[in-house]
Amino acid sequence: MNSLPTTVASALAEANSENTDWPAHWQSLTAVSIELQSLLVTDPGPELVGLIEHIVTQLADGVAASRRHRVELAELAHRVLATHARACAETRPDPVRLADWLLDLQLHHPDAPDVSLSAYADALDDEGLAHYRERAVELFEPLPVIGFGETGRYDRARWALLRVMEELAEYTEDVDLQLLVLSKDLSSGWHYLQVATVLRDNGRSEEALEWVERGLRAVGGRGAALRLIDLAVEEHLRRGHPERAVQVCREAFFARPNLDLYLKIRALVVHTDEWPPLRADLVDHLVRDGSRLAVEVYRRIVEVELARRGIEEQELVVEWLEQLRGLQPDAFADYLDHIKSRHVADRQLLDELSKRGM
Fold first, then answer.
1. pLDDT of 225-259, one tens digit each?
2. What is the dihedral of CA 125, 128, 134, 137, to 10 degrees?
3. Largest CA distance in the chain
C-alpha cells in the first residue's frame, strides 16, 4: 500500500520526457487506480482514505505540470477521486476534516478533478456540509465585483472559488448562494437579468424589480434593456400594477427611443383613455429630440400606424408627417414618395395628404 505514491511519483516524473516509454508508465498509473479499488474491498479504513487523498493530490499536480498527457491524467484523477468518495462513505472520516480536504483540493490545485458533493453526502453529513459552506462563503464574499463594462478577472484562484460555489449552490439548492455567485459578475446587462430572473422565479418579486432598475441604469437602453423591461412589465402586471408597467416603458422610451418600446406601451394602454395623450407625449419627445435615432424611430412608428389603416390612425399619421417634414426638410420629399408608393391604393390617405399640401 505504501509503495503506491512512489509508483505514481515515478510515472509522473516521466510524463513530459521526450524519450520516456509513456505507455508503460501509463499502465503503472492505471494499475495504481485498480489497486486502490481492490483495497477498498479488502482493507478499507482511515489509512486507505489518507492514501487515496495523497494520490489524488499527486495526480492533480501532474495534470497541471503535464504538457502532453493532461487529458489522460485528468480522467485518471477523476476515477481515483470517485474511489475516494466510496472509501469515505465506507469509513466515515471526520466530516469537518473531509470538508477541509475537499475545499483545499479544489482551491490549491486548480486542475483537480471536479468535486461532486452528492457523492460525499453521507460522509460529510450536516456538520461537514455546514463547515464546507461556511468556509467557502467566507472565502468567496471578499472577491471584488466585476462592474458593468469591465473585463472579467478570472485568475485561477477566482475560477476555483467560483467552481466551488456553483457546485455548492446547485447541490444545496440554496437561492441565496446562487445569487451571491451571480452578483459577483455584473459586467453586462445580461448578468443583471440573470439575477432578476432567479429572484422572480423564486417568488422574490420586489427584489427582482430592484435588480431590473439597477440593470436599466447600467445599460442605458442598450444590450439587455428590452429583456429587463419585459421582466419588469410582467411582474408589475402580475402584481396588479399596470400603471407601473407603463411607467417603466415610458421612462425607457424617453431615455432611448425605439419602436419596440413604443409598441409595448401601445399594447398596454391602446384601449384606454390614457393612450391619446401618452402617444402625443411620445411623439413630442421624438420631435424635441430631433436626433437621427429619434427620426428613424419616428418613421417606423408612422409605418406601424399606417399598417393599421384606421381612420384615427391615418389622421394622426398625417399630423406626424407634417412634424417630420419640419425635422428633415431635405429628405422629406423622398420619404413621402416612399409612403405614397406603398399605399397607392389607400385613397383616403392620399386625399388627406393632398389636403395638407403633401
1. 999 999 999 999 999 999 999 999 999 999 888 88
2. -80
3. 101
